[in-house]
């Protein structure tokens, strides 16, 4: 799966978790907590959505806070740990 495709899955997952139809202008440097208002509870939900949609195999021992700094860092992590994409079609 391409990095661009993974980024789209991450964008959709963030929309689901943050209950937004659109995130607006998001790029690799967009701060997840500061700009998108992600919080600790939504991180858990986000991980579950990404596990399901990308087949992520998340190892809690290697999951560092830096993964959630920016859209780019989360996308990079997801791309490196995804096995498949099964994200449901947008409704």
Automatic annotation (TrEMBL):
Matches recorded under Pfam families: PP-binding
InterPro entries, per database record: ACP-like_sf (IPR036736), PP-bd_ACP (IPR009081)
UniProt domain Carrier: residue ranges: 4-82
Protein name in UniProt: Acyl carrier protein
């Amino acid at each position: 799966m391409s990095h661009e495709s993974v980024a789209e899955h991450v964008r959709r997952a963030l929309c689901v978790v943050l209950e937004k139809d659109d995130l607006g202008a998001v790029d690799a440097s967009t701060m997840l907590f500061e700009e998108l208002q992600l919080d600790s509870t939504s991180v858990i939900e986000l991980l579950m959505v990404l596990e399901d949609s990308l087949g992520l195999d998340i190892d809690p021992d290697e999951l560092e806070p830096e993964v959630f700094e920016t859209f780019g860092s989360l996308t990079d992590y997801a791309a490196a740990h995804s096995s498949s994409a099964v994200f449901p079609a947008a409704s």
